[in-house]
Amino acid sequence: MEHATACVHNRNNPFIAEMVFFILQHVIFLLATWLLCTTSLKTGYGRGLLLLPVLISLTGVEQAVPMLAVAQLAAALPHVRSGLPAVNWRHVGWFLLGAAPCCVAGALVFVVLPQEYAARLAGAVLLLSVLIRHFDVGTAAAMKSHRVGCGIVAGTTSGTVGTTAGLHMRSFQTHHLPPASLLAAFALSGAIMHSLKMMVYQRFIELDWRFWRLAAIVAAAMLLASWRGIVHESASPGFRRTVETGIIIAAAYLLVHGTAP
Fold it and tell me: Does residue 60 have a pLDDT over 70?
């Protein structure tokens, strides 16, 4: 009788109910972010592009952009460690010559920019990513001949809205690097940019325990999704169009409302 009473008491205990709900929320968040990261690998759209509108909706743009930086830095570090011998330092150096100072400048702009305008800017970058995919032939030639300029654009967008609109990876893909060198160059240059941005974000933005908890979950989802590499474009054209339509709708909403739904 006493055992049965104790079981009923435990089921009705608000603390236990809240704990179960808390764990369930985070499991769902992990699965959702993992699904978005996996979709990114299948379609070739960057993880930041797909995650940004969702994180803005959940946390606001002020927390979403630094959260992407932390998660992408944590996800890049294992690839940096394993791929360091394959790094093409010449290509990475030319890219970072433009990207490194500009991502710091972009981060400084972000911390003083009103959140409404930052969200609208994020919407514009999302649209830019779609345009880059549709005009890939022209942009590929431009990126190959203007590596520093590509780094400037990628660094600026990365610092201000947390994503490079696909320019980061494509700037290395245009040089037809071997897979190991491509992965290493992408991971190393990304880790450096994300580290520089976080120095700025941490100085000017209050990042509480909830922020670090969610950032760790996003980082775990990225690592799980990219366990076998960075980009594996294997989705059907119809699925890619569906994802692209979702990006356009999210971008339009951000541009019009200055926030995510």
Answer: yes
* Burial per residue of 48-60, b for 16 or more beta-carbon CB atoms within 10 angstroms, e otherwise: bbbbbbbbbbebe
Higher pLDDT, 52 or 3: 52
Give the chain as a 3 state SS string.
Answer: CHHHHHHHHHHCCHHHHHHHHHHHHHHHHHHHHHHHHHHHHHHCCCHHHHHHHHHHHHHCHHHHHHHHHHHHHHHHHHHHHHHHHHCCHHHHHHHHHHHHHHHHHHHHHHHHCCHHHHHHHHHHHHHHHHHHHHCHHHHHHHHHHCHHHHHHHHHHHHHHHCCCCCHHHHHHHCCCCCHHHHHHHHHHHHHHHHHHHHHHHHHHCCCCHHHHHHHHHHHHHHHHHCCCCCCCCCCCHHHHHHHHHHHHHHHHHHHHHCCCC
Per-residue pLDDT tens digits for 217-258: 999 999 888 775 445 556 688 888 899 999 999 999 999 998
The domain ranges of the chain are 47-257
List the one residue out of 247, 218, 254 whose CA is nearest residue 37. Answer: 218
Kindly report whether the global pTM for this prediction surpasses the value 0.70. yes
Quote the pLDDT of residue 45: 86
Mean pLDDT in residue range 51-70: 94
Task: For residues 23 and 20, give the distance between their C-alpha atoms in angstroms, rounded to a whole number.
Answer: 5
- Between the alpha carbon of residue 31 and those of residues 38, 46, 104, 224, the distances in Å are 10, 18, 32, 10
pLDDT digits (tens, 9 = 90+) for 122-151: 999 999 888 888 775 445 555 555 778 888
